[in-house]
Design brief:
The complex is a heterodimer of chains A (269) and B (408). Chain A is an alpha/beta fold and 269 residues long. Chain A is 46% helix and 14% strand. In chain A, strands 5-4-3-2-1-9-8-7-6 form a nine-stranded parallel beta sheet. In chain A, helix 2 runs parallel beside helix 4, helix 10 runs parallel beside helix 12 and helix 11 runs antiparallel to helix 12. Chain A starts with a helix and ends with a helix. Chain B is α/β, with parallel strands linked by helices and 408 residues long. Classes of the chains: A alpha/beta (269), B alpha/beta (408). Chains A and B meet through helix 5 and strand 6 of A and strand 2, helix 1, helix 8 and strand 11 of B. Chain A: It catalyses: (1S,2R)-1-C-(indol-3-yl)glycerol 3-phosphate + L-serine = D-glyceraldehyde 3-phosphate + L-tryptophan + H2O. Chain A: InterPro entries: Aldolase_TIM, RibuloseP-bd_barrel, Trp_synthase_alpha_AS, Trp_synthase_suA.
């Protein structure tokens, strides 16, 4: 079983949802970002999404746009992001790690080389925002052939007719983007999320994680009662943006992570 | 003259690909919309009522056909090829942009959309979009980079007069690429109500094909007009390229006429060797941005590099995928001219023909000044005069003053 499968199976046994955290690799700099990454599992992150910085993050709101700019200014690139994963894996072999970003840096790196290097570094899955199922042959298929999961985003606009197309070739888990919009935008209502999860369940047995607009332990707990995973990104990244120094950035992200984790862990009790 | 027929006008395929270029690389939120748009466009394209209405607005609102004008003095000055100007600058709103806007606004109305968004660089597409939105009573939001707002203030004012909201985009260098990112962000947020009126032959399928089809009226008219005036096909076509819509509009109806030499002119800015340019084909490599696979200005890590051109309309790090393909197969020759060469051509056109061209179109003219003198007098050359230069007064004035100061 893959790390993602194992982790979601364990949590199902414990009757709780996964806390999925997103941070951008190299934000605000390599060392601080690595310290955050290494600290996340102990702070309660069950699955880690690590952003691959890109100059033109078209589906992201201001918080993650700025994180991308900070990381790029600190000279982060795909080579270094893969190096971060390697260093993370030196003392963590259980927490699934998913790389998230846009296609062009991977395209430039070269798809076969990227897949080989990502696998070797210990990457478990990919979320590539601008890579719809219509282009499966270019990245999704070779990644899965190498044993890397390809996680699809589904959205409020993905209707019942389209869902099978999107889910065909999805693996690891399904990421439901609960609002039509960019990352960090307003949250969806619980009614909407509940309806969406019910709809997705009809189409897939994969774990369903909900993201976009979830910022507080209370919101995380509410979503954790409905879905298999809760994704938080922009709220964590705001702690990096607002930190006065690197230590504050690390402490800020990890203490919010701990609070979110507590919310998720106690949600179904 | 023999004419062998090829089949270069059939693209793209069902997946929106021109060879290896094009496609639909967008976030899932947008996929259903883009598929829906493709279906609606395919239906509209063969609907006689849609085409009649389009023809009506092209004639009575835009002012088509635009003249194909024999540029006698320009021809004399160059002393070679016989030069014709396709006068797209005489269209309503002063450029070729309105050809596409009229087509897309009719489609938006057909789809029941109430809100129109667009990105703009030089502001010509923004003005054309604001114009058609006003004509059809639809809400209009234009995204424009802060750098472009600074250098195109007259167009910003025009858009506001026409009732559009102009939203400044600070991100990146505040130019066309950043405006396009922000327009895409708006679109994913307002999927139900909003129609994204893309201004060039780029973006996810069906935009490159659809915008080309609406702009192909330029080439179709040119064909008929030259037939009437000279009784034959042109020997060469010249057009400037940012995203590439005016060029694709002129080129497309001639792609299968192998006797016609076709030249696209990119913006070399300060010179391709300086790295400060907007020549995606001559100075870029293939990649994926804004929904399509095409040639892009990017660094070794796949990060997008900001384009530079004196002309805001060419200031984009990508190019339409059909151009990428035509470059790849060698059907179209893509050259480049610098800011200085374009400015020189701008002044010559003003003095020789009494036509103030847009700085974008001045790039095409600069290529004509290089090429026409070397060609025989019976060589028929058609240049797309894609826009008028009124919007560029400030930029040109600034450069003349700077040049004067440097002399002293």
């Amino acid at each position: 079983m893959s790390r993602l499968q194992t982790r979601f199976a364990q949590l199902k046994e414990q009757n709780r949802a996964a806390l999925v955290t997103f941070v951008t690799a190299g934000d605000p700099g390599y060392d601080t970002s690595l310290a955050i990454l290494k600290g996340l599992p102990a702070a309660g992150a069950d699955v880690i999404e690590l952003g691959m910085p890109f100059t033109d993050p078209m589906a992201d709101g201001p918080a993650i746009q700025l994180a991308n700019i900070r990381a790029l200014e600190a000279k982060q690139n795909l080579l270094k992001t893969l190096q971060m994963v390697r260093e993370f894996r030196q003392d963590n072999n259980d927490t699934p790690l998913v790389l998230m970003g846009y296609f062009n840096p991977i395209h430039k790196y070269g798809v076969p080389q990227f897949i080989a290097d990502a696998k070797e570094a210990g990457v478990d899955g990919l979320i590539v925002v601008d890579m719809p199922p219509e282009h499966n042959g270019e990245l999704c298929d070779p990644a899965q052939a190498a044993g890397i999961d390809f996680i699809r985003l589904t959205t409020p606009t993905t209707d019942d007719v389209r869902l099978p197309t999107v889910l065909n070739g999805s693996s690891g888990f399904v990421y439901y983007v609960s609002v039509a919009g960019v990352t960090g935008a307003g949250a969806a209502t619980l009614e909407h999320v509940e309806e969406a999860v019910t709809r997705l369940r009809r189409h897939t047995d994969l774990p369903i994680s909900i993201g976009f607009g979830i910022r507080t332990p209370e919101q995380a707990a509410a979503i954790a009662r409905l879905a298999d995973g809760v994704v938080v990104g922009s709220a964590l990244i705001d702690h990096i943006a607002n930190a006065k120094n690197d230590q504050q950035a690390i402490d800020g992200v990890l203490s919010l992570c701990a609070a979110l984790s507590e919310g998720v862990r106690n949600a179904r009790k | 003259m023999t004419q062998s027929q090829t089949d270069l006008r059939n693209g793209p395929d069902a997946n929106g690909l021109f060879g290896a270029f094009g496609g639909r690389y967008v976030a899932e939120t947008l996929m259903p919309l883009i598929l829906d748009l493709a279906r609606e466009y395919e239906a509209a394209k063969i609907d006689p009522a849609f085409n009649e209405e389009l023809a009506y607005f092209q004639r009575d609102y835009v002012g088509r056909p635009s003249p194909l004008y024999f540029a006698e003095r320009l021809t004399e000055f160059c002393g070679g090829a016989k030069i014709y100007l396709k006068r797209e600058e005489l269209n309503h709103t002063g450029a070729h942009k309105i050809n596409n806007c009229i087509g897309q606004i009719l489609l938006a109305r057909r789809m029941g959309k109430k809100r129109i968004i667009a990105e703009t660089g030089a502001g010509m597409h923004g003005v054309a979009t604001a114009t058609v939105a006003a004509r059809f009573g639809l809400q209009c939001v234009i995204y424009m980079g802060t750098t472009d707002i600074e250098r195109q203030q007259a167009n910003v004012f025009r858009m506001k007069l026409l009732g559009a909201e102009v939203i400044p985009v600070v991100a990146g260098t505040g130019t066309l690429k950043d405006a396009m990112n922000e327009a895409l962000r708006d679109w994913v947020t307002n999927v139900d109500s909003t129609f994204y009126l893309i201004g060039t032959v780029a973006g996810p399928h069906p935009y490159p094909a659809m915008v080309r089809d609406f702009q192909a009226v330029i080439g179709k008219e040119t064909r008929d007009q030259l037939q009437a005036q000279e009784g034959r096909l042109p020997d060469s076509l010249v057009a400037c390229i940012g995203g590439g819509s005016n060029a694709m509009g002129l080129f497309h109806p001639f792609l299968d006429d192998t006797s016609v030499e076709i030249i696209g002119v990119e913006a070399a800015g300060h010179g391709i060797e300086t790295g400060k340019h907007a020549a995606s084909l001559n100075g870029g490599v293939p990649g994926v941005l804004h929904g399509n696979r095409t040639f892009l200005l990017q660094d070794e890590d796949g990060q997008i590099i900001d384009a530079h051109s004196i002309s805001a309309g060419l200031d984009y790090p990508g190019i339409g995928p059909e151009h990428a393909w035509l470059h790849d197969i060698g059907r179209v020759q893509y050259t480049s001219v610098t800011d200085d060469e374009a400015l020189d051509a701008f002044h010559k056109c003003c003095r020789l023909e009494g036509i103030i061209p847009a700085l974008e179109s001045a790039h095409a003219l600069a290529e004509v000044f290089k090429r026409a003198p070397t060609l025989p007098k019976d060589h028929l050359m058609v240049v797309n005069l894609s826009g008028r230069g009124d919007k560029d007064m400030q930029t040109v004035m600034h450069h003349m003053e700077t040049a004067k100061q440097e002399k002293h």
